[in-house]
Amino acid sequence: MSSDTNTSFFMNPQKAGFGSCTAEDELLHRELNRTLTDPDLTETQFLGFSVPSAGLHSLCYLWAHPNLRLLTGGVWAWRGVKPNALASELFDMRQFMPDTPLRDGDLDKFQLANGYHVELVEPLRELRIGYEDAARGNAFEVTLTAIMPPAVLPSNRHFDQAMRTRGWVSLRGERHVIDGYTVRDRSWGENRTEDPRAIPPVHWLTGVVDDDFAFHLMGMERPSDGPIWRDIYPVDDSLPEATNRGWIWRDGELLGLTSASVRTRWDRSTGYPTAHRVTMTDTQGREYTLDGDVVASNNWSAWSNAFLVIGLTRWTHEGRTGWGDSQIGAWTDFVHALHAGG
């Protein structure tokens, strides 16, 4: 299947509604993968944890390239705002590992060459992750337990899920208790191409207040709101209107969005987002406004020609506080103009 018929959903207009998944979708999609011949074919597993009181955030990642027989991924954790991934207290991501751990095994239990290991305790409900680098005083053991069912894209090739996180992490010998939330995701059957994109930065925003309220928004700012990239891209509001999507988990019910927007404040010196205002309307007509302050940021160029930033964000909504991710993907035109003062 060619890249133009099965490219990543991150940059494409989205259908409304939800799809469905089963416990089998926690595992490698070997049968499907045999029908998809593009070298850009991927399967991903994104997990993580944070310690908001310490400004500590993380990304634990497996990115399988089935047709190349390679794996990218590992572990990453840091405190505060860092200029790049190698300034982190913990960074052990590897980009060209052979897929040996998955040839005879599967995603229910594996260990990468760097020692990062994942165990699926109960499909669609609980996972355990761990890692140790004794020489640097880095280690963690974390259990992630679902607080909601998976929110599945209509394509049936991706889901998000808010998770409770409990455990501990040691960064450079300093130990922290983990007792919070994260939103994990899982993708399969898509071609993630490295081509530079002539589109504005794409935001991936998540937040969890408690077991009864979580959200996710994927999309971009509206040109009519005057974002700093407004003069770089010849796009209008129809692009974010077609692209922006997400969900709300509220009081035991999973709801889609009928509209969503984000306005972002940027640090021109780093290119990092520093704050967001998100507005959303769910399928029951309820409106939400959330303000997010990014308290810990970092970047990792998993693709050399993409600028990928992740941050720990404090969200406030109707007097309540939650925590989650601020992630962006941006490409050369945006980054060039930002640092040129354009």
Automatic annotation (TrEMBL):
InterPro entries: DUF7064. Residues 198-328 form the DUF7064 domain. Pfam families: DUF7064. This is DUF7064 domain-containing protein.
